[in-house]
Q: What sequence folds into this?
Protein backbone atom coordinates (compact mmCIF):
# COMPACT_ATOMS: atom_id res chain seq x y z
CA UNK A 1 0.00 0.00 0.00
CA UNK A 2 2.85 2.39 0.85
CA UNK A 3 4.54 1.66 -2.48
CA UNK A 4 1.29 2.37 -4.35
CA UNK A 5 0.91 5.68 -2.53
CA UNK A 6 4.54 6.55 -3.30
CA UNK A 7 4.05 5.71 -6.98
CA UNK A 8 0.91 7.88 -7.07
CA UNK A 9 2.85 10.77 -5.52
CA UNK A 10 5.68 10.30 -8.05
CA UNK A 11 3.19 10.26 -10.95
CA UNK A 12 1.62 13.48 -9.63
CA UNK A 13 4.97 15.22 -9.20
CA UNK A 14 6.14 14.18 -12.68
CA UNK A 15 2.84 15.38 -14.19
CA UNK A 16 3.22 18.77 -12.48
CA UNK A 17 6.79 18.99 -13.86
CA UNK A 18 5.55 18.14 -17.38
CA UNK A 19 2.80 20.77 -17.15
CA UNK A 20 5.46 23.21 -15.96
CA UNK A 21 7.58 22.36 -19.01
CA UNK A 22 4.57 22.95 -21.28
CA UNK A 23 3.91 26.34 -19.70
CA UNK A 24 7.59 27.24 -19.85
CA UNK A 25 7.74 26.27 -23.54
CA UNK A 26 4.72 28.52 -24.23
CA UNK A 27 6.37 31.40 -22.37
CA UNK A 28 9.67 30.85 -24.19
CA UNK A 29 7.94 30.70 -27.58
CA UNK A 30 5.97 33.87 -26.90
CA UNK A 31 9.08 35.64 -25.65
CA UNK A 32 11.06 34.52 -28.70
CA UNK A 33 8.35 35.73 -31.06
CA UNK A 34 8.37 39.18 -29.45
CA UNK A 35 12.15 39.50 -29.69
CA UNK A 36 13.65 41.91 -32.24
CA UNK A 37 16.80 40.71 -34.04
CA UNK A 38 19.24 43.20 -35.52
CA UNK A 39 21.91 42.68 -38.18
CA UNK A 40 24.09 45.06 -40.14
CA UNK A 41 25.63 44.59 -43.62
CA UNK A 42 27.98 46.76 -45.66
CA UNK A 43 30.73 46.54 -48.27
CA UNK A 44 31.67 42.98 -49.22
CA UNK A 45 29.33 41.71 -46.55
CA UNK A 46 26.42 43.21 -48.44
CA UNK A 47 27.51 43.09 -52.08
CA UNK A 48 28.48 39.44 -52.52
CA UNK A 49 27.51 36.46 -54.64
CA UNK A 50 26.50 33.87 -52.04
CA UNK A 51 24.18 33.98 -49.02
CA UNK A 52 25.47 33.45 -45.50
CA UNK A 53 23.74 30.18 -44.70
CA UNK A 54 25.28 30.10 -41.22
CA UNK A 55 23.20 33.14 -40.21
CA UNK A 56 19.53 32.92 -39.27
CA UNK A 57 18.82 35.69 -41.76
CA UNK A 58 21.13 36.79 -44.55
CA UNK A 59 20.96 39.84 -46.81
CA UNK A 60 22.93 40.39 -49.98
CA UNK A 61 22.60 43.14 -52.58
CA UNK A 62 22.99 42.46 -56.26
CA UNK A 63 23.37 45.17 -58.91
CA UNK A 64 21.74 44.56 -62.25
CA UNK A 65 23.46 45.65 -65.46
CA UNK A 66 22.99 49.39 -65.98
CA UNK A 67 20.51 50.27 -68.68
CA UNK A 68 20.65 54.03 -69.06
CA UNK A 69 22.49 57.21 -68.13
CA UNK A 70 21.39 60.83 -67.66
CA UNK A 71 22.77 64.29 -67.37
CA UNK A 72 22.20 65.83 -63.96
CA UNK A 73 23.40 69.45 -63.96
CA UNK A 74 22.64 69.95 -60.30
CA UNK A 75 24.51 73.23 -59.87
CA UNK A 76 23.69 74.65 -63.34
CA UNK A 77 27.31 74.38 -64.50
CA UNK A 78 26.41 73.91 -68.15
CA UNK A 79 27.38 70.22 -68.23
CA UNK A 80 26.94 68.51 -71.59
CA UNK A 81 27.79 64.84 -70.92
CA UNK A 82 25.81 62.31 -69.00
CA UNK A 83 27.20 62.03 -65.50
CA UNK A 84 24.73 59.69 -63.65
CA UNK A 85 23.83 56.10 -64.34
CA UNK A 86 20.71 54.22 -63.18
CA UNK A 87 21.21 50.96 -61.28
CA UNK A 88 18.64 48.45 -60.10
CA UNK A 89 19.57 47.06 -56.69
CA UNK A 90 17.94 43.78 -55.65
CA UNK A 91 18.14 42.92 -51.95
CA UNK A 92 17.96 39.16 -51.41
CA UNK A 93 16.63 38.51 -47.91
CA UNK A 94 16.86 34.81 -47.00
CA UNK A 95 15.35 32.98 -44.05
CA UNK A 96 17.76 30.18 -43.11
CA UNK A 97 15.76 28.76 -40.22
CA UNK A 98 12.80 26.44 -39.67
CA UNK A 99 10.88 29.38 -38.16
CA UNK A 100 8.83 31.89 -40.15
CA UNK A 101 10.04 35.50 -40.33
CA UNK A 102 6.88 37.32 -39.37
CA UNK A 103 8.08 40.86 -40.06
CA UNK A 104 11.14 42.89 -40.97
CA UNK A 105 12.27 46.34 -42.10
CA UNK A 106 15.63 47.51 -43.27
CA UNK A 107 17.41 50.84 -43.12
CA UNK A 108 19.74 51.82 -45.99
CA UNK A 109 22.11 54.68 -45.12
CA UNK A 110 23.87 56.21 -48.15
CA UNK A 111 27.58 56.98 -48.19
CA UNK A 112 27.37 59.27 -51.20
CA UNK A 113 25.04 61.54 -53.11
CA UNK A 114 22.39 59.57 -55.05
CA UNK A 115 18.97 60.13 -56.58
CA UNK A 116 16.18 57.74 -55.65
CA UNK A 117 14.01 56.95 -58.63
CA UNK A 118 11.84 53.93 -57.97
CA UNK A 119 11.01 51.16 -55.51
CA UNK A 120 8.38 48.49 -55.79
CA UNK A 121 5.99 46.70 -53.48
CA UNK A 122 7.01 48.13 -50.11
CA UNK A 123 6.67 51.62 -48.67
CA UNK A 124 9.60 53.94 -47.93
CA UNK A 125 10.25 56.19 -44.99
CA UNK A 126 12.63 58.90 -46.24
CA UNK A 127 15.01 60.67 -43.83
CA UNK A 128 16.83 63.73 -45.18
CA UNK A 129 19.14 66.02 -43.20
CA UNK A 130 18.91 69.60 -44.45
CA UNK A 131 19.98 72.92 -43.06
CA UNK A 132 16.63 73.34 -41.33
CA UNK A 133 16.85 69.93 -39.70
CA UNK A 134 15.73 66.38 -40.40
CA UNK A 135 12.80 65.79 -42.72
CA UNK A 136 10.90 62.52 -42.42
CA UNK A 137 8.29 61.49 -44.97
CA UNK A 138 6.49 58.21 -45.53
CA UNK A 139 5.94 57.35 -49.17
CA UNK A 140 3.48 54.42 -49.44
CA UNK A 141 4.35 53.67 -53.08
CA UNK A 142 7.17 55.42 -54.91
CA UNK A 143 5.63 54.42 -58.22
CA UNK A 144 2.81 56.83 -57.45
CA UNK A 145 4.94 59.59 -55.92
CA UNK A 146 3.38 63.10 -55.87
CA UNK A 147 6.01 65.60 -54.68
CA UNK A 148 3.38 68.19 -53.71
CA UNK A 149 2.16 65.78 -51.01
CA UNK A 150 5.54 65.60 -49.30
CA UNK A 151 8.11 67.91 -47.77
CA UNK A 152 11.19 66.45 -49.44
CA UNK A 153 14.31 67.65 -51.21
CA UNK A 154 13.66 66.58 -54.80
CA UNK A 155 15.15 67.10 -58.25
CA UNK A 156 13.47 67.01 -61.67
CA UNK A 157 15.45 65.94 -64.74
CA UNK A 158 13.93 65.21 -68.14
CA UNK A 159 10.49 65.15 -66.55
CA UNK A 160 11.49 62.56 -63.93
CA UNK A 161 10.93 63.45 -60.28
CA UNK A 162 13.80 62.11 -58.15
CA UNK A 163 14.39 62.21 -54.41
CA UNK A 164 17.75 63.75 -53.71
CA UNK A 165 19.67 61.75 -51.06
CA UNK A 166 22.97 63.06 -49.66
CA UNK A 167 25.61 61.19 -47.65
CA UNK A 168 24.12 60.30 -44.26
CA UNK A 169 20.52 60.40 -45.54
CA UNK A 170 18.70 57.11 -45.29
CA UNK A 171 15.54 55.27 -46.17
CA UNK A 172 13.61 52.63 -44.23
CA UNK A 173 11.97 49.96 -46.32
CA UNK A 174 8.71 48.45 -45.00
CA UNK A 175 7.81 45.25 -46.90
CA UNK A 176 4.40 44.65 -48.41
CA UNK A 177 2.19 41.77 -47.27
CA UNK A 178 -0.18 42.20 -50.23
CA UNK A 179 -1.18 39.15 -52.22
CA UNK A 180 0.84 40.33 -55.21
CA UNK A 181 4.00 41.19 -53.30
CA UNK A 182 4.09 38.62 -50.46
CA UNK A 183 7.29 40.08 -49.01
CA UNK A 184 6.16 39.08 -45.52
CA UNK A 185 5.97 36.68 -43.92
CA UNK A 186 9.04 34.79 -45.16
CA UNK A 187 8.50 31.06 -44.87
CA UNK A 188 11.21 28.76 -43.46
CA UNK A 189 14.18 28.37 -45.81
CA UNK A 190 12.57 30.79 -48.29
CA UNK A 191 13.39 34.36 -49.30
CA UNK A 192 12.13 37.58 -50.83
CA UNK A 193 13.70 40.24 -53.08
CA UNK A 194 12.77 43.91 -52.53
CA UNK A 195 14.30 46.25 -55.14
CA UNK A 196 14.99 49.95 -55.74
CA UNK A 197 16.34 51.98 -58.67
CA UNK A 198 18.96 54.63 -57.86
CA UNK A 199 20.95 57.08 -59.98
CA UNK A 200 24.62 56.99 -59.00
CA UNK A 201 27.54 59.02 -60.45
CA UNK A 202 29.00 57.13 -63.39
CA UNK A 203 31.87 54.89 -62.32
CA UNK A 204 30.75 54.84 -58.69
CA UNK A 205 28.52 52.53 -56.60
CA UNK A 206 26.90 52.43 -53.15
CA UNK A 207 28.95 49.57 -51.71
CA UNK A 208 30.00 51.83 -48.84
CA UNK A 209 26.37 52.24 -47.78
CA UNK A 210 25.14 50.44 -44.64
CA UNK A 211 22.06 48.23 -44.49
CA UNK A 212 20.64 47.59 -41.00
CA UNK A 213 17.80 45.07 -40.77
CA UNK A 214 15.36 44.60 -37.90
CA UNK A 215 13.36 41.37 -38.00
CA UNK A 216 11.16 39.07 -35.90
CA UNK A 217 10.57 35.35 -36.04
CA UNK A 218 7.31 33.55 -35.55
CA UNK A 219 8.13 30.20 -34.00
CA UNK A 220 5.36 27.64 -33.80
CA UNK A 221 4.98 26.03 -30.39
CA UNK A 222 5.75 22.61 -31.88
CA UNK A 223 9.13 23.93 -33.04
CA UNK A 224 10.19 24.97 -29.55
CA UNK A 225 12.74 22.34 -28.30
CA UNK A 226 11.36 22.47 -24.76
CA UNK A 227 7.87 21.72 -26.11
CA UNK A 228 9.22 18.63 -27.87
CA UNK A 229 10.88 17.53 -24.62
CA UNK A 230 7.64 18.02 -22.66
CA UNK A 231 5.66 16.19 -25.37
CA UNK A 232 8.02 13.21 -25.23
CA UNK A 233 7.89 13.31 -21.43
CA UNK A 234 4.08 13.35 -21.53
CA UNK A 235 4.08 10.37 -23.90
CA UNK A 236 6.39 8.41 -21.60
CA UNK A 237 4.27 9.45 -18.62
CA UNK A 238 1.06 8.28 -20.32
CA UNK A 239 2.62 4.93 -21.27
CA UNK A 240 3.86 4.49 -17.70
CA UNK A 241 0.41 5.46 -16.38
CA UNK A 242 -1.29 2.92 -18.65
CA UNK A 243 1.14 0.20 -17.57
CA UNK A 244 0.68 1.16 -13.93
CA UNK A 245 -3.13 1.21 -14.33
CA UNK A 246 -3.09 -2.26 -15.91
CA UNK A 247 -0.83 -3.58 -13.17
CA UNK A 248 -2.96 -1.86 -10.54
CA UNK A 249 -6.13 -3.43 -11.96
CA UNK A 250 -4.45 -6.83 -11.93
CA UNK A 251 -3.22 -6.20 -8.40
CA UNK A 252 -6.69 -5.18 -7.22
CA UNK A 253 -8.14 -8.31 -8.81
CA UNK A 254 -5.43 -10.45 -7.25
CA UNK A 255 -5.82 -8.75 -3.85
CA UNK A 256 -9.58 -9.20 -3.94
CA UNK A 257 -9.12 -12.90 -4.61
CA UNK A 258 -6.28 -13.08 -2.09
CA UNK A 259 -8.35 -11.37 0.60
CA UNK A 260 -11.23 -13.71 -0.18
CA UNK A 261 -8.92 -16.73 0.15
CA UNK A 262 -7.47 -15.33 3.37
CA UNK A 263 -10.94 -14.82 4.75
CA UNK A 264 -11.79 -18.44 3.97
CA UNK A 265 -8.56 -19.60 5.65
CA UNK A 266 -9.22 -17.33 8.65
CA UNK A 267 -12.79 -18.51 9.05
CA UNK A 268 -11.74 -22.14 8.63
CA UNK A 269 -9.01 -21.81 11.26
CA UNK A 270 -11.31 -19.89 13.62
CA UNK A 271 -13.97 -22.57 13.19
CA UNK A 272 -11.41 -25.27 13.96
CA UNK A 273 -10.05 -23.43 17.00
CA UNK A 274 -13.64 -22.81 18.08
CA UNK A 275 -14.09 -26.59 18.34
CA UNK A 276 -10.98 -26.76 20.53
CA UNK A 277 -12.04 -23.89 22.82
CA UNK A 278 -15.55 -25.36 23.10
CA UNK A 279 -14.11 -28.41 24.86
CA UNK A 280 -13.51 -26.18 27.87
CA UNK A 281 -16.19 -23.53 28.55
CA UNK A 282 -13.76 -21.68 30.85
CA UNK A 283 -11.31 -21.05 28.00
CA UNK A 284 -13.87 -20.27 25.28
CA UNK A 285 -12.42 -17.66 22.87
CA UNK A 286 -8.92 -18.20 24.26
CA UNK A 287 -7.27 -19.00 20.88
CA UNK A 288 -8.74 -15.92 19.21
CA UNK A 289 -7.65 -13.62 22.03
CA UNK A 290 -4.13 -15.03 22.11
CA UNK A 291 -3.89 -14.53 18.33
CA UNK A 292 -4.94 -10.88 18.69
CA UNK A 293 -2.46 -10.24 21.51
CA UNK A 294 0.33 -11.89 19.52
CA UNK A 295 -0.52 -9.80 16.46
CA UNK A 296 -0.29 -6.63 18.58
CA UNK A 297 3.15 -7.65 19.85
CA UNK A 298 4.30 -8.38 16.28
CA UNK A 299 3.06 -5.00 15.07
CA UNK A 300 5.09 -3.26 17.78
CA UNK A 301 8.10 -5.26 16.62
CA UNK A 302 7.70 -3.91 13.08
CA UNK A 303 5.93 -6.78 11.30
CA UNK A 304 3.29 -5.93 8.68
CA UNK A 305 1.35 -7.28 5.71
CA UNK A 306 1.42 -10.99 4.92
CA UNK A 307 3.97 -11.78 7.65
CA UNK A 308 1.67 -10.22 10.25
CA UNK A 309 -1.22 -12.37 8.98
CA UNK A 310 0.97 -15.48 9.17
CA UNK A 311 1.88 -14.72 12.80
CA UNK A 312 -1.82 -14.25 13.59
CA UNK A 313 -2.75 -17.64 12.06
CA UNK A 314 0.12 -19.47 13.79
CA UNK A 315 -0.98 -18.02 17.13
CA UNK A 316 -4.62 -18.91 16.39
CA UNK A 317 -3.60 -22.58 16.01
CA UNK A 318 -1.24 -22.77 18.98
CA UNK A 319 -3.61 -24.97 21.06
CA UNK A 320 -4.87 -27.19 18.22
CA UNK A 321 -3.27 -30.23 19.92
CA UNK A 322 -5.90 -30.01 22.70
CA UNK A 323 -8.36 -31.60 20.28
CA UNK A 324 -6.89 -34.92 21.39
CA UNK A 325 -6.98 -34.23 25.14
CA UNK A 326 -9.93 -35.88 26.94
CA UNK A 327 -12.60 -33.48 28.21
CA UNK A 328 -12.41 -34.81 31.75
CA UNK A 329 -8.76 -33.78 31.97
CA UNK A 330 -9.28 -30.35 30.36
CA UNK A 331 -12.18 -29.55 32.68
CA UNK A 332 -10.84 -31.20 35.86
CA UNK A 333 -11.38 -28.74 38.75
CA UNK A 334 -8.67 -30.19 40.98
CA UNK A 335 -4.97 -30.75 40.70
CA UNK A 336 -3.84 -32.99 37.83
CA UNK A 337 -1.83 -36.11 38.63
CA UNK A 338 1.43 -36.87 36.83
CA UNK A 339 -0.21 -38.99 34.15
CA UNK A 340 -2.87 -36.37 33.45
CA UNK A 341 -0.27 -33.60 33.33
CA UNK A 342 1.76 -35.67 30.87
CA UNK A 343 -1.31 -35.94 28.65
CA UNK A 344 -1.92 -32.17 28.90
CA UNK A 345 1.71 -31.45 27.93
CA UNK A 346 1.40 -33.75 24.93
CA UNK A 347 -0.93 -31.22 23.24
CA UNK A 348 2.18 -29.34 22.05
CA UNK A 349 3.63 -32.30 20.13
CA UNK A 350 0.21 -33.50 18.95
CA UNK A 351 -0.52 -30.00 17.66
CA UNK A 352 2.83 -29.92 15.86
CA UNK A 353 2.06 -33.26 14.20
CA UNK A 354 -1.40 -32.08 13.10
CA UNK A 355 0.02 -28.88 11.60
CA UNK A 356 2.93 -30.59 9.86
CA UNK A 357 0.57 -31.19 6.94
CA UNK A 358 -0.37 -27.50 6.73
CA UNK A 359 2.08 -26.43 4.01
CA UNK A 360 0.51 -23.10 3.01
CA UNK A 361 1.72 -21.37 6.24
CA UNK A 362 5.50 -21.58 6.67
CA UNK A 363 6.60 -22.91 10.08
CA UNK A 364 2.98 -23.00 11.27
CA UNK A 365 3.80 -25.80 13.76
CA UNK A 366 6.32 -23.67 15.70
CA UNK A 367 3.61 -21.94 17.73
CA UNK A 368 1.88 -25.17 18.69
CA UNK A 369 5.08 -27.04 19.55
CA UNK A 370 7.10 -24.44 21.43
CA UNK A 371 4.68 -21.98 23.10
CA UNK A 372 5.24 -23.70 26.50
CA UNK A 373 9.01 -23.46 26.31
CA UNK A 374 10.53 -21.12 28.90
CA UNK A 375 13.25 -18.55 28.39
CA UNK A 376 15.30 -20.15 31.19
CA UNK A 377 15.11 -23.58 29.50
CA UNK A 378 12.72 -25.21 32.04
CA UNK A 379 9.76 -25.48 29.67
CA UNK A 380 8.47 -28.31 27.51
CA UNK A 381 8.44 -30.31 25.27
CA UNK A 382 12.19 -29.90 24.42
CA UNK A 383 13.56 -27.62 27.12
CA UNK A 384 14.82 -25.00 24.64
CA UNK A 385 16.46 -21.93 26.14
CA UNK A 386 16.57 -18.20 25.25
CA UNK A 387 16.72 -17.49 21.53
CA UNK A 388 16.80 -21.20 20.74
CA UNK A 389 13.05 -20.89 21.07
CA UNK A 390 11.49 -19.66 17.81
CA UNK A 391 10.57 -15.96 18.05
CA UNK A 392 6.90 -16.52 17.27
CA UNK A 393 6.67 -19.07 20.10
CA UNK A 394 8.19 -16.53 22.51
CA UNK A 395 5.50 -14.01 21.46
CA UNK A 396 2.70 -16.56 21.94
CA UNK A 397 4.12 -17.56 25.34
CA UNK A 398 3.58 -14.04 26.72
CA UNK A 399 0.14 -13.63 25.07
CA UNK A 400 -0.99 -17.11 26.20
CA UNK A 401 0.09 -16.53 29.80
CA UNK A 402 -1.63 -13.15 29.94
CA UNK A 403 -4.93 -14.60 28.71
CA UNK A 404 -4.68 -17.44 31.25
CA UNK A 405 -4.16 -14.93 34.08
CA UNK A 406 -6.89 -12.64 32.73
CA UNK A 407 -9.55 -15.41 32.50
CA UNK A 408 -11.69 -17.15 35.09
CA UNK A 409 -10.72 -20.81 35.44
CA UNK A 410 -12.47 -23.69 37.17
CA UNK A 411 -9.81 -23.66 39.86
CA UNK A 412 -9.50 -19.82 40.36
CA UNK A 413 -10.80 -16.39 39.37
CA UNK A 414 -8.86 -14.12 37.00
CA UNK A 415 -6.11 -11.95 38.46
CA UNK A 416 -6.29 -8.19 38.81
CA UNK A 417 -4.50 -6.01 36.25
CA UNK A 418 -1.87 -5.05 38.86
CA UNK A 419 -1.22 -8.69 39.78
CA UNK A 420 -0.85 -9.62 36.10
CA UNK A 421 1.68 -6.82 35.54
CA UNK A 422 3.63 -7.95 38.63
CA UNK A 423 3.65 -11.58 37.41
CA UNK A 424 4.96 -10.64 33.99
CA UNK A 425 7.61 -8.36 35.53
CA UNK A 426 8.65 -11.12 37.94
CA UNK A 427 8.97 -13.74 35.21
CA UNK A 428 10.96 -11.67 32.71
CA UNK A 429 14.09 -13.61 31.83
CA UNK A 430 12.78 -16.82 33.39
CA UNK A 431 9.49 -17.74 31.75
CA UNK A 432 9.34 -14.85 29.27
CA UNK A 433 11.69 -13.26 26.74
CA UNK A 434 12.40 -9.94 28.56
CA UNK A 435 12.22 -7.80 25.40
CA UNK A 436 8.86 -9.27 24.36
CA UNK A 437 7.58 -8.99 27.92
CA UNK A 438 8.48 -5.27 27.99
CA UNK A 439 6.70 -4.73 24.66
CA UNK A 440 3.57 -6.43 25.94
CA UNK A 441 3.65 -4.49 29.24
CA UNK A 442 3.65 -1.21 27.27
CA UNK A 443 0.61 -2.43 25.31
CA UNK A 444 -1.11 -3.52 28.53
CA UNK A 445 -0.43 -0.26 30.35
CA UNK A 446 -1.59 1.80 27.38
CA UNK A 447 -5.13 0.46 27.80
CA UNK A 448 -5.31 -0.98 24.26
CA UNK A 449 -6.40 -4.36 25.66
CA UNK A 450 -9.32 -3.03 27.72
CA UNK A 451 -11.94 -3.68 25.02
CA UNK A 452 -10.61 -7.08 23.89
A:
Amino acid sequence: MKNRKLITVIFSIVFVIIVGLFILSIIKTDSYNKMHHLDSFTGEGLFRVDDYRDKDLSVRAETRTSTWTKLFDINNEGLTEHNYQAYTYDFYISNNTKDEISDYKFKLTFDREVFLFLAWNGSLEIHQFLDDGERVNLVPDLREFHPEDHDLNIAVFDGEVLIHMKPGDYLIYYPSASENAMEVPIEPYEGTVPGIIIYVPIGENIDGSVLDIDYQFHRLLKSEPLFAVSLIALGVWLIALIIFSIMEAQYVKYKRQHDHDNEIIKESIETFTGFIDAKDPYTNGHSNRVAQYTRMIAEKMGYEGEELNRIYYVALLHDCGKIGVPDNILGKPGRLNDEEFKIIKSHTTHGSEILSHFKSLPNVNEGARFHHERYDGKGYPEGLKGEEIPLIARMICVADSFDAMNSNRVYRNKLTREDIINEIEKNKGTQFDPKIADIFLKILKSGKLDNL
User: Anything to note?
Assistant: The mean pLDDT is 90.
